């Protein structure tokens, strides 16, 4: 179980199984939240809190670049405090939170209090994506420069696709200038037809309305073309179809070559 050290007095963990570049078992001494010594049978210091780490793994904190803390707006599901605690419990010390919140943090005025609360309520580092467009609609790109200056790590409309190609093109142009990533939820709404699961044998078996794979892959194909044209750092979230994997593989092979 992950242990978050809140006390500033010295502490040490004994018999920790350390997973870093290599794996080994050793004692770790911590002073002022920083590892001050790693070694075999380290002598205890005065007033030291000792944690028996036998059977536990000690490793660098994990990073999750895609979390939803649902605050503000949907706190019945999750809050910054509970989400960050769950992340810490799983060994994650840095996470990046998505922006499909209420209000959507699409202006400096709505982003700033959110960043403040991320910092105040979480014991881990919570970084924040701002949305690509105002209110997650597909027509008006946010002021990316202002939001980045206020502290946004990058831009994502996670939860919904950007339906308009020109909006995405403009967003990518802005983001490329700022060296900020565009983190895309790829889903063409016009191909959804009320589907709730990828079409295929599982949808059939569960008798659920299916979504054809091209709902994802056709928007991805568009984005990859626009990303190549703008040179933006582009990331596709939760890819779920074979066609998308093929497209990404192909784009990785040719990107750069086409750009030069
Ligand atoms: Zn998501």
From TrEMBL:
GO CC annotation, single: cytoplasm
Domain Dihydroorotase catalytic: residue ranges: 55-243
Zinc is among the record's keywords: yes
Gene Ontology biological-process entries: purine nucleobase catabolic process
Keyword check for Metal-binding: yes
Cofactors: Zn(2+)
GO molecular-function term, one example from the UniProt record: metal ion binding
Keywords: Hydrolase, Metal-binding, Pyrimidine biosynthesis, Zinc
Family, similarity comment: Belongs to the metallo-dependent hydrolases superfamily. DHOase family. Class I DHOase subfamily.
PANTHER family with a match to the protein in the record: ALLANTOINASE
Function statement: Catalyzes the reversible cyclization of carbamoyl aspartate to dihydroorotate.
Name under which the protein is recorded: Dihydroorotase
Species of origin: Lacticaseibacillus paracasei subsp. paracasei Lpp41
